[in-house]
Amino acid sequence: MKKQRLGIGIIGGGFNARFHIRAWIGVRDADILGVFDPDKKRAEEAVGIARKLNVGEAKAFRSITDMAADPKIDALWISAPNFTRIEVMEEIVHALEKGKGDLTGVCCEKPLGRNVKEARRMLELARRTNLLDGYLENQVFAPSVVRGRAIVWARGAALTGRPYLARAAEEHSGPHMPWFWEGSLQGGGVLNDMMCHSVEVARFMLTPPGAGRSVLTPTKITAHASCLKWQIAGYAKALWDSSGGKTDYLKRPAEDFARSLIEYKDDKGQVVVVETTTSWCYVGAGLRLSMELLGPEYSLQINSLDAGLKVFFSRRVKGKAGEDLVEKQNAEVGLMPVVSDEENEYGYTAENRHMVQSFLKGVRPSENFEDGVGVAELLMAAYMSAEKEKTLAFPPSGLAHFVPAVAKGTWNPKKA
Ligand SMILES: NC(=O)c1ccc[n+]([C@@H]2O[C@H](COP(=O)([O-])OP(=O)(O)OC[C@H]3O[C@@H](n4cnc5c(N)ncnc54)[C@H](O)[C@@H]3O)[C@@H](O)[C@H]2O)c1
After folding, report:
1. What is the per-residue pLDDT for 416?
2. Distance between Cα 14 and ligand 1 center (Å)
3. How far apart are CA 97 and CA 108, in angstroms?
């Protein structure tokens, strides 16, 4: 009998999982019933948030296998660090193959893997167990992106021709946990961490609503990466101190700024272009997502910091540093934008709702592990282009096994 409601287990109870849990208020038809995190305190905190928000009678599990085996759990959301992807997915698959659990689906946060090989392995593991797979790229579910794209395609594109240029940028002042800064653990620097969003949302906007990924074929890629801020002595020391002496950007930096220019051909042979910019060295009010979509007689623009709500605090308001106005907030005084419903505006609510509805219907989500593999291919090609300092035809040879120098700890622009 088809289920009317799903039980969800979350793997990894950190920063990102909390966005998912808060987003659940608008999801419907599913309850968060479990959290696994090797850090028991983190797991209990995430469980506490789920219970407080009344989005499910969550409990902490001792292992992924135990959570998968619980008959109340129907789908798993992977929100553990990038370096654990394969071990996490293998544990899920082994549990199912031993008959422990009967899962419908699995969702995985961006990036699907630290490189193409890992991303393809994730896809292969999901296929082996016939799990429905969802790739958690929230930006393609952001209401302003979805609605803006629908309007542009229905009006401007229908009457004057398809959009030919998409720009996307994600910028903030740097990640919250030391592992993000380590190329070997995270897979790279900001290019891997945040350009995954920008390449996918830009491709999505250039794709007609209802059409699949195959409408656009990448043909060329040109990219650039540099470390602009975090190799400056004082900032490198700050990273060293906050990681307990592990992160050494003087010797093993990762890029904190990256750009890419991706040329695609559409199904009629028309050239369209994606331009992305990402950085960990943007000090504005907080996280800024910006997108543009341009066509012959129209354009669209989105800037997440152009918030409808702004607050002003004079210099006499000397409060504690916080993240209560916007993600990756950098100030508490002056005129500050407030992103009043981050989970919704960044796309988490619609993303999770889409995944749940797809799993309930027994169909593959529109954003799935194939898309995660496609993103990994573009990002690794971007690293190849940046390392070679030249434009590459896509796919470049050697892509399947390529590991960026930054992930091997051998990239250091200061020495070049
Ligand atoms: N969509 C987005 O915009 C977005 C934003 C932030 C993070 N992310 C992604 O979400 C994932 C998690 O990021 P985060 O910010 O929550 O990191 P985090 O470091 O804040 O939290 C990760 C949690 O996973 C736990 N963990 C470690 N090893 C684990 C394992 N083997 N199994 C289960 N849990 C484990 C840690 O104890 C920690 O609590 C990353 O892949 C990241 O790229 C996506």
Report:
1. 60
2. 5
3. 20
